[in-house]
Amino acid sequence: MKHLVLVLNCGSSSIKFAVINPSTGELSLSGLIQRIGSANANIRYKLGDQVTERELPDIDYQGSMGLITEIINTSRGITESLLAVGHRVVHGGEQFTTSAVIGEQVLREIRHCITLAPLHNPANITGIEEATAAFPNLPQIAVFDTAFHQTMPETAYIYPIPYELYQDHRIRRYGFHGTSHRFVSKAAATLLGKDLHHCAMVTAHLGNGCSTAAILNGKSMDTSMGLTPLEGLVMGTRSGDVDPGLYQYLAEHLDYTATDIATLLNKKSGMLGLSGIDSDLRPIETQAEKGDRRCKLALEIFCYRLAKYIASYLAPLGRLDALVFTGGIGENSRVIRKGTLQWLSALGFTVDQERNQTNGKHSNGIITTESSTIAMVVPTNEELMIAQDAAALVT
Ligand code: ADP
Which residue, judged by its Cα, is nearest atom 4 of ligand 1? Predict the structure, then answer.
């Protein structure tokens, strides 16, 4: 019986792949090819219980997809059970409000969105083309990071700049991480025994990229990322919100070009720029504990700015039933969760130290017990959401 979905997340130099049973979440295969095109490219994958790791010097994209196809085709029981291929696509512009079966028209529209995501959509398209060639008989499904946020009202997505820039060039706020926000909001409602369609939630996806979403009755009403994934919260290497006047200052007084500014704000800022040591939260937490002033400051700014976003969502939501932490940081960092909730006592949050310490495990994810508002930890699973969308679209 065909019941498995191949999920592909194709980045510019990496391909994350998984074969998932969308009904159970069971993984038959999962893996990652990294640093494609470089001398130290490698693959690591888990097939059943067996983990394999291999160097793949100078492998190209086509070769990488060929290798994934070979692994699938030589693994007993997978090929004949595949139902569809689900692709993570970063930008779906205004065209895509839900996931879509890929045909020529859909592919054309994904291409059309390249101007909005020049680093991501081209890799996603290459992945779709290669997967179509490798599995010509399987339906290919696109699941967009932006689609979930297409329910935002104009009030939330229009920038206060000349309206013609929206009308003529579609410059507006789109938001990202939609698949994760959608997955954890559903999972949180289930864990709480509530109907998602009668819930007011804030979800905080905190990984290398970070974003919040205000979700009312299952629909995204606002989110912190905008036209690009640079807007909003402090991230690993991204600044999040800064004064737009900073661009002119850097250009006129420090001779920065547009490219220099983009590199500064995307690659050298955030936790890396603040701490001066790393973009990864773990060493920053360790150094802060040892008393490093800049690492402490980085953590404080991260929590303060996150708390301000969460509090601001009372405007679109009107009330708050639950705050959900997810992503590598949200799921693992008790320091960040506690530091953020400390700013939010006015919203009724009191952290349960013990539950926060254990990341809310064994308690439906809830890390507040004395509190009038619930905060919880819910692990994200974007691959499963993509597999479920793909299965729903083809059956
Ligand atoms: P991506 O956005 O690339 O998917 P992840 O969701 O895996 O990233 O999140 C990566 C972040 O999670 C890193 O900053 C990492 O330091 C942080 N992280 C992972 N495990 C822990 C932990 N045990 N404690 C604190 N931070 C953690």
Answer: 207
Residue segments in the chain with a per-residue pLDDT below the cut of 50: none
Does the CB atom of residue 329 touch ligand 1 within 6 A? yes
What is the model's pLDDT at position 10? 94
Q: What secondary structure, in 3-state letters, does the chain show? A: CCCEEEEEEECCCCEEEEEECCCCCCEEEEEEEECCCCCCCEEEEEECCEEEEEECCCCCHHHHHHHHHHHHHCCCCCHHHEEEEEEEECCCCCCCCCCEECCHHHHHHHHHHHHCCCCCHHHHHHHHHHHHHHCCCCCEEEEECCHHHHHCCHHHHCCCCCHHHHHHHCCCCCCCCHHHHHHHHHHHHHHHCCCHHHCEEEEEEECCCEEEEEEECCEEEEECCCCCCCCCCCCCCCCCCCCCHHHHHHHHHHCCCHHHHHHHHHHCCHHHHHHCCCCCHHHHHHHHHCCCHHHHHHHHHHHHHHHHHHHHCHHHHCCCCEEEEEHHHHHHCHHHHHHHHHCCHHHCCCCCHHHHHCCCCCCCCECCCCCCCEEEECCCCHHHHHHHHHHHHHC
Indicate which residue of 49, 145, 222, 280 is catalytic.
Answer: 145
Query: What does pLDDT average to over the chain?
Result: 96
